[in-house]
């Protein structure tokens, strides 16, 4: 039902002015004596008086209802009969009068509209009033007779009113919208006329108006126009039209009438597939899904094609999978090639979300998908569609679903069966780059799960595919190289020795040399670390660190120097940071850790010189500062490396010769004077290291106790880390300062104390987080308690004694022995240690 609007409160006044300005006065005979209005259906009673039919019949009913005899309203004479006779002649005269008036009024209205001032010219209030009166008359005329709507079209008034939509007066624009809606209502010819030219685009612009009345009237007019099929196509073809309508439907600020009209307009527009596609692109997906479910095979193909072209939000992918997932799988299995192509592309998009992928797996997508992927001969998918199938399989594997429980055929083979993995490996080696990349990604997904990696590793071994997979690190396409590196890294914990041997074949010209070339090259510092570089160095970092042959090859290829340089550049900001820096740093630290593991081997001096040259110890100390989330591995391997380096300090320290004793010779007897023996040099004398007794530095002798290097402070900070492995590694590095290998273990304890590290060491013991950490902490505390002043103070702390007793009762043999010694220390210490006292006071 149309809603009448009185914009500005002036319609009633305009109507009076309109009647005064246009109408020819009516004769008295035209007027009904009862209603005082011009009659439409005049009738005569027996007295010869003429009345409006409805009016006189009402008079008779009132007489009857009141118990009176019927009378003439004018003469009050009683009537013998209430029969009435149509006054045909009078009615014809009145109709002619009306027609003359309507023609005059219509001519004047049309003339007034034709003379309306263009929007670019300022208008007076009188000009607006004339235009509004003319629009009001056209509105009344169309209300009175549907035939008048045809007359309006034939007189060429529709384009004139359309031009008023661009008026500078809002009242005129609003009235024009309202009148146009009335003109096209239930009149297809008028709809077609209004739909010509650029009018629909003008109407659609009103949908984004700031004025709610303009939006409401515009969407009401569009709804009327959308009832004609050709107009639906034109509306959808205008850029932004469907988006504005969809936005209006979902808006919480629009009134109910506008929302309802927008909704109904969209429903009318659904008749055309192109409109349905646009609706889907703008978030209104249900019409597309409905046509996909209910449409003919041809419509289903078209809708599936549209679906495959859309970029769907993750929550929408779930809805689509729930509603049409099973249907799409069915079409994929039994449809024609064009239907399967459209369906596969749609499934590729839908499966790219974890939840929707699992829904598709429940719908049975895996068996036909794998069958299509591996099928050969007549009826098989062309290579371009195998690529799509491989992408879908990659998405499904990435969902984390359990593929061990999904049979592929009657033989109960699964995706993890050895034969199936063999087929994947064979297809990878005998297909194009696009499919290779996706299938490698499938294996990356399968090997990324602890529950399935062993199956894939076993199949790789049994098929002898190790060399083939390694060869992909030198592929021409970067995406293939990246995926192959990810795969090799995933399997390296299970076949690290085999990978190391295969990579090392060929020396500098082999795969290892190519891999290092990728890792170390820097084409543009502004581009930062690439994904391929991060994947390559991560693989190298995961290979067995005690494979000395691989370490030697890396050394000969200059890998350690290059990686150390790159880490320094990253720390200084020379290379721009990005999301690949963290994994690259982790892998590089693991690779450099190999150098420290080789310091006790036959060629140790080579690696000592290397460590000195690149400043390995200072670099690891600097890396300890990376306490941010996700860098636990950097902390762990840096601390482990510092432990290995620090263990070499004692042998690398240059201990000065003690000064010769001074002889006091007697001139008489020619012999030395009897007296006191020479005293030993105190710790730190002559600039020597307090702990190692010689000339030390962090860079040259890997001494953690060097003043100002902050190594001990950063290791102490790691003792409070959440990861017990990091705590254990840091404690192991600190323990190298108090072990038997140093010249003065007491000074080592004091160095730790000055870094406020004694209390954290004791707290590690008290916390008793893991068995390995307890063993390490008991050893360190026993060393600390060898300093009598510290032992005396610790004796007052019952929690320490309780922790030692717990270790003595439940630890292994070595831990019990160490705990026993520590408990003995607590029984005999009489003095306090200022170092421990200060540490405790600051804690």
TrEMBL record:
Residues 25-104 form the U-box domain. Pfam families: U-box. It comes from the Eukaryota. CDD domains: RING-Ubox_PUB. Pathway: Protein modification; protein ubiquitination. PROSITE patterns: U_BOX. GO terms for biological process: protein ubiquitination. It catalyses: S-ubiquitinyl-[E2 ubiquitin-conjugating enzyme]-L-cysteine + [acceptor protein]-L-lysine = [E2 ubiquitin-conjugating enzyme]-L-cysteine + N(6)-ubiquitinyl-[acceptor protein]-L-lysine. GO terms for molecular function: ubiquitin protein ligase activity. Keywords: Transferase. InterPro entries: ARM-like, ARM-type_fold, Armadillo, RING-Ubox_PUB, U-box_domain_protein, Ubox_domain, Znf_RING/FYVE/PHD. The keyword Transferase applies. Residues 1-20 are annotated as: Disordered. Its EC number is 2.3.2.27. PANTHER family: RING-TYPE E3 UBIQUITIN TRANSFERASE, U-BOX DOMAIN-CONTAINING PROTEIN 24. This is RING-type E3 ubiquitin transferase. It comes from Miscanthus lutarioriparius.
């Amino acid at each position: 039902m149309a809603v009448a609007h009185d914009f500005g409160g002036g319609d009633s006044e305009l109507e009076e002015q309109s009647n005064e300005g246009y109408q020819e006065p009516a004769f008295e005979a035209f007027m009904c004596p009862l209603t005082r209005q011009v009659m439409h259906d005049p009738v005569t009673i027996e007295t010869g008086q003429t009345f409006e039919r409805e009016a006189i019949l009402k008079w008779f009913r009132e007489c009857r209802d009141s118990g009176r005899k019927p009378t003439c309203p004018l003469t009050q004479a009683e009537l013998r009969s209430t029969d009435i006779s149509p006054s045909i002649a009078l009615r014809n005269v009145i109709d002619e009068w009306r027609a003359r008036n309507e023609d005059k009024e219509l001519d004047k209205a049309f003339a007034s509209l034709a003379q309306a001032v263009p929007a670019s010219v300022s208008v007076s209030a009188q000009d607006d009033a004339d235009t509004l009166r003319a629009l009001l008359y056209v509105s009344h005329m169309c209300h009175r007779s549907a035939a008048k709507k045809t007359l309006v079209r034939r007189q060429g008034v529709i384009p004139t009113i359309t031009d008023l939509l661009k008026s500078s007066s809002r009242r005129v624009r609003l009235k024009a919208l309202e009148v146009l809606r009335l003109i096209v209502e239930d009149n297809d010819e008028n709809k077609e006329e209004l739909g010509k030219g650029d009018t629909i685009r003008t109407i659609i612009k009103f949908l984004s108006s700031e004025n709610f009345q303009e939006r409401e009237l515009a969407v009401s007019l569009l709804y009327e126009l959308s009832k004609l099929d050709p107009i639906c196509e034109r509306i959808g073809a205008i850029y932004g039209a469907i988006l504005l309508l969809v936005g209006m439907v979902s808006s919480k600020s629009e009134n109910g009438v506008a929302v309802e009209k927008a909704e109904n307009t969209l429903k009318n527009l659904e008749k055309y597939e192109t409109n349905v596609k646009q609706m889907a692109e703008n978030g209104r997906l249900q019409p597309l899904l409905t046509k996909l479910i209910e449409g003919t095979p041809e419509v289903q193909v078209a809708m599936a094609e549209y679906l495959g072209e859309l970029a769907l939000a993750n929550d929408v992918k779930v809805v689509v999978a729930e509603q049409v997932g099973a249907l799409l799988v069915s079409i994929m299995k039994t449809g024609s090639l064009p239907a399967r192509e459209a369906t596969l592309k749609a499934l590729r998009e839908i499966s790219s979300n974890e939840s929707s992928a699992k829904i598709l797996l429940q719908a049975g997508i895996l068996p036909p998908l794998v069958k299509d992927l591996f099928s050969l001969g007549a009826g098989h998918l062309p290579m371009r569609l195998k690529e799509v199938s491989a992408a879908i399989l990659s998405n499904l594997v990435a969902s984390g679903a359990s593929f061990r429980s999904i049979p592929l055929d009657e033989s109960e083979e699964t995706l993890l069966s050895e034969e199936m993995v063999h087929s994947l490996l064979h297809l990878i080696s005998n297909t194009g780059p696009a499919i290779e990349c996706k299938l490698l990604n499938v294996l990356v997904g399968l090997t990324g799960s602890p529950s399935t990696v062993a199956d894939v590793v076993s199949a790789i071994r049994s098929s002898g595919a190790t060399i083939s997979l390694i060869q992909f690190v030198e592929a021409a396409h970067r995406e293939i190289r990246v995926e192959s590196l990810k795969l090799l890294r995933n399997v390296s914990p299970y076949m690290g020795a085999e990978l190391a041997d295969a990579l090392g074949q060929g020396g500098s010209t082999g795969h290892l040399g190519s891999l290092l070339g990728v890792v170390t090259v820097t084409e543009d510092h502004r581009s930062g670390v690439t994904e391929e570089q991060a994947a390559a160095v991560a693989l190298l970092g995961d290979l067995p660190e005690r494979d000395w042959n691989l370490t030697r090859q890396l050394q000969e290829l200059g890998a350690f120097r290059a990686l150390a340089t790159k880490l320094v550049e990253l720390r200084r900001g020379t290379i721009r940071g990005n999301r690949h820096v963290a994994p690259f740093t982790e892998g590089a630290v693991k690779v450099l850790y190999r150098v420290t593991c080789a310091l006790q081997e036959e060629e140790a001096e080579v690696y000592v010189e290397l460590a000195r040259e690149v400043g390995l110890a200072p670099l690891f100390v600097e890396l300890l500062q990376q306490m941010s989330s996700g860098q636990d591995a950097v902390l762990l391997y840096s601390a482990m490396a510092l432990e290995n380096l620090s263990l070499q300090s004692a042998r690398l320290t240059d201990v000065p010769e003690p000064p010769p004793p001074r002889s006091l010779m007697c001139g008489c007897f020619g012999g030395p004077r009897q007296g006191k023996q020479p005293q030993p040099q105190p710790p730190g004398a002559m600039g020597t290291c307090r702990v190692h007794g010689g000339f030390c530095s962090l860079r040259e002798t890997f001494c953690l106790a060097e003043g100002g290097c902050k190594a001990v402070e950063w290791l102490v900070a790691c003792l409070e880390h959440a990861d017990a492995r990091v705590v254990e590694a840091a404690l192991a590095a600190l323990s190298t300062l108090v072990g038997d290998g140093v010249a003065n273990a007491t000074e080592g304890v004091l160095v730790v104390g000055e870094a406020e590290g004694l209390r954290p060491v004791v707290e590690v013991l008290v916390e008793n987080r893991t068995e390995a950490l307890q063993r390490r902490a008991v050893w360190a505390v026993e060393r600390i308690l060898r300093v009598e002043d510290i032992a005396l103070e610790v004796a007052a702390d019952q929690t320490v004694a309780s922790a030692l007793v717990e270790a003595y009762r439940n630890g292994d043999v070595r831990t019990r022995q160490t705990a026993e010694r520590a408990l003995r220390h607590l029984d005999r210490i009489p003095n306090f240690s200022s170092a421990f006292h200060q540490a405790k006071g600051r804690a």
